[in-house]
Amino acid sequence: MKVANPLKTFAKEKVINYYEKAGLDYEEWDKDFNMHFGYFKWGINPFNLSAMLNQMNEEVFLRLKLSNYSNPTVLDLGCGLAATSRYMAKKNEKALLYGITITPWQIEFGTQLNKKAELHNRISIIKSDFANTPFANDSADSAFAIESSCYAKGDDKKDLIKETYRVLKPGGRFVLTDGFRKHNNPLPKWLDKIYRKNLEGWALNDLGEINLFIKAMEDVGFKNIKVEDISWKVAPSFMHIPRTVFKFFWKRFLKKEKTTLSKERRDNALGPLWGMLLGLSRKHFSYYIISAEK
To answer: Which class for 14: exposed (0-12), middle (13-18), buried (19 or more C-beta within 10 A)?
Structure first.
């Protein structure tokens, strides 16, 4: 009889509890529930957060090269409320997308948003661990993970990488965006405290280490791996964090929710502030787009 790993079970319960309690607060960041940072390019108004969030969706979409497939099957690994899937479904009207999440609330609310956008016939959200999915071998044309690979276990996130490789068809594309540690050396004490605060705020155990992550991709069999450090591209969207945090707490104050605000909601609101400080420590942390094919 296989016994569940209690630490792994606890980690999942922590993530589920966090999103169940704090998930709706992401509307303060973006009314379309893009639960990630944005991508700045020349021509975009840096004060327009929504435009930068959608540009990040666009950058991932372009790297997936869905135009290479007649009717692409696409996996959204750690989909949140499936905002990026909705973006891609509008960009490619023949694509079928499957969002994967372990959080029941995200399935329920994300499905409502898909219906509201009249995309529920092409986007399905299923309850599954993205490192152990129900999809058959060689069944997906492409897969992406936007700021969700950090929830996979280990410094190299190899379980997620192996599973993604398994379900992709030969030639299938995998694209992800996320923050990573640049090394596994001990951080300065003051920075380690900030790092741990950031992890706690977003119910994370650890960020991936970029060199180990890429090695795991190579070991599993991914090829044509491209690593792009886009830290300066996401920086303008980071500048929206203080305003968003202030707005969140001001609204709670006006509604007299200060004493009833759960720890998860407080941590979720403050987590990005800690993340801003980590982002300034370029020696130790960076933000990447990574693309590869099977």
So the answer is: middle
